[in-house]
Amino acid sequence: MQPPYILVLYYSRSGATQDMARLIARGVEQAGPGIEARLRTVPAVSPVSESTAPAVPDTGAVYCSEDDLRHCAGLILGSPTRFGNMAAPLKHFLDNTGALWLSGALINKPAAVFTSTSSLHGGQESTLLSMFMPLLHHGMVLCGLPYSEPQLMATQSGGTPYGASHHAGVDGKRRVDDDETALCLALGRRVASLALKLRA
Q: Closest Cα to residue 96, out of 136, 132, 144, 64?
């Protein structure tokens, strides 16, 4: 029998959100041997209706399926900030999860969110809150980062009680720093630990 898994589902354009997703997945697997991380992404949305994404992305995680979402023990969503909101590809994917909503497949499963921005005041917290909305409609149990994580008080870049965040810089090349890394790992561990407790 396959062990339960936390789905780390993200959209990334410049790679910063993908870097965070990998750290969060590592945090999930630090929670213990009874749970795994599953990294998945979503295809870009094209303004050209004839444009289609390849069946498998050229790099990074594979695309998320409905079954990946249906059978997860918990969910951690990530997106870069787009005008203080989640990116359109992730929103498009979530907008097509009506069948899961009807079946109640995600009710009482833990969920968390993360984001990356080009500026420190580019809407990190509003983006995290925008990702919470569909999770509430799915009946998920939302969790953030408690202030028992010392990096929340020490960080001078990303990191909020609503979820992990990262300041990537205007060129998108600023690496995830030590405080941001610690908070990504903590978020993964927390969701995985809660998932194991809720399943018990």
A: 64
